[in-house]
Amino acid sequence: MFRYFTAGESHGQALVAWVSGLPAGIPVDIAFINRELKRRQGGYGRGGRMKIETDQADILSGVRRSKTTGAPVAMVIWNKDWENWKEALPVEEHADTPEKYKGLNPPRPGHADLAGSLKYNLHEARYVLERASARESAARVAAGALAKLLLGQVGIEVLSHVLTVGNVQSALLPSWDEIKQLCARNEILFNCVDPAAEQQMKAAVDEVLRTGDTLGGIFEVVAHNVPAGLGTHANWDERLDGLLAQAVMSLQAVKGVEIGTGIESAVSLGSKVHDQINYSQTEKKFTRPENHAGGLEGGISNGEDIIVRGYLKPISTLRRPLQSVHMETKEVVKAAYERSDVCVVPAAGVAAEAMVALVLARCLLEKFGGDSLVEMRRNFDGYQAQLRAF
Ligand SMILES: Cc1cc2nc3c(=O)[nH]c(=O)nc-3n(C[C@H](O)[C@H](O)[C@H](O)COP(=O)(O)O)c2cc1C
Q1: Pocket residues for ligand 1 (CB within 6 Å)?
Q2: Residue 264's closest CA among 307, 202, 322?
Q3: 252 alpha carbon to ligand 1 midpoint, in Å?
Q4: Distance CA 70, CA 21 (A)
Q5: Under a CB-based contact definition with an 8 Å cutoff, are residues 67 and 26 in contact?
Q6: Mutation probe of ligand 1 site: the residue of 6, 341, 353 with most atoms within 8 A of C-beta
């Protein structure tokens, strides 16, 4: 069974990722994992924290001589900022001065501060925000990198690009090769294929930097080369569209998930929305001239690229804070502010790639199983032959 968990707090000692159920024999390239972590750190509009950290994964278990062993893989990403937070977040109790404690109150609207404090009976939000923070998504990206390495063994790749920041929209919809070129860049501005839109996005972020506000946007994750037949229509909780939606929605600040052109489809005609079916005699496969369905029909992959869009709300920590209420005094005051990003759409796209890769890895292993890569590949190749002979 393929499973993964994360642990760790934003300003704690480290983030931890635990991934279990990977077959033995998958080549593990640590440089690839670290590059994924670097991609998540990038983008215009990030706060000071990303300048402090240079995320790198230390693998503690489950990988020997650059291959998985079949045992659980444990990874640690150390927080450099921990040096500044040791006294505020000690593991063992000791007498604190209030300044060292670094409590957060009043709660920020849009963040987990108030809901989490009510739930856990905490009268300030430090412990809640430490775990709610999207710093956690670094651990997901490390886990997702392992999933990508597994998927890569059968030719599946997962990448993302940005469609909008605020109300600035890309005028271009990239091909797979264009997305690959975009994601190969070392410097990320907005990870958008449209250079003119990127400049407008930058201007929009500069404006909110000036006014103390924040921005959201839309990213698109594309999974390329996914075979038809992952996921199933048979049970509601195994539908691949549902699994992807849950995984991407679980990312911090994602407030909507769209498969293909699902949202636009709701106001279109059936004749305009559904992708007609062709057959390629040379490739011996069914093809579609268009992909409005985003590669999913009936909760099953149909052989086209899987396309998942995430709708990100604007960051909730505002330099010009909104109204809030102090949790102890119940006084109406301005919300707390602490160092924050103002726009994270490209980074959220990278984190969503990880979530999509983790879901696809799970479905791939469910369908093709295998304790070793050799066994899984044999099952996969047999299925591919079956599809060709269909
Ligand atoms: C990559 C990334 C970075 C984020 N950085 C911040 C940040 O610096 N400040 C902030 O207030 N929210 C940030 N967020 C969003 C919050 O973590 C999120 O809004 C909060 O945990 C509440 O969860 P919810 O928006 O999913 O309801 C970030 C989100 C992502 C995906």
Answers
A1: 47, 111-112, 132-134, 137, 251-253, 313, 315-317, 340-341, 344, 347-348, 351
A2: 307
A3: 5
A4: 7
A5: yes
A6: 341
CA-nearest residue for atom 9, ligand 1, is 340
User: What pLDDT, on the 0 to 100 scale, is given for residue 173?
Assistant: 94
Cα 260 to middle of ligand 1, angstroms: 25
How far apart are the CA of 315 and the centre of ligand 1, in A? 6
What is the Å distance from ligand 1's center to 334 Cα?
19
Q: Evaluate whether 122 touches 351 at the Cβ level (below 8 Å).
A: no
Task: Give residue 151's identity as a one-letter amino acid code.
Answer: L
CB 158 within 8 A of CB 275: no
Q: For residue 134, which atom of ligand 1 is closest to its CA?
A: 17
pLDDT of residue 48: 84
> Tokens standing for 202?
């930058």
pLDDT tens digit sequence for 283-339:
989 999 999 999 999 999 999 999 999 999 999 999 999 999 999 999 999 999 999
Is residue 223 within 8 A of residue 240, CB to CB? The reply is no
CA of 137 to the centre of ligand 1 (A): 10
Bin 130: left if φ > 0, else alpha if -120 < ψ < 50, else beta: alpha
CB distance 345 to 219 below 8 Å? yes
- Of 189, 162, 164, residue with least CA distance to 178: 162
Q: Return the residue whose CA atom lies nearest to atom 19 of ligand 1.
A: 253
Report pLDDT for 101.
85
Query: For the stretch 356-373, what's the b/e string if a residue is b when 16 or more beta carbons lie within 10 angstroms of its beta carbon?
Result: bbbbbbbbbbebbebeeb
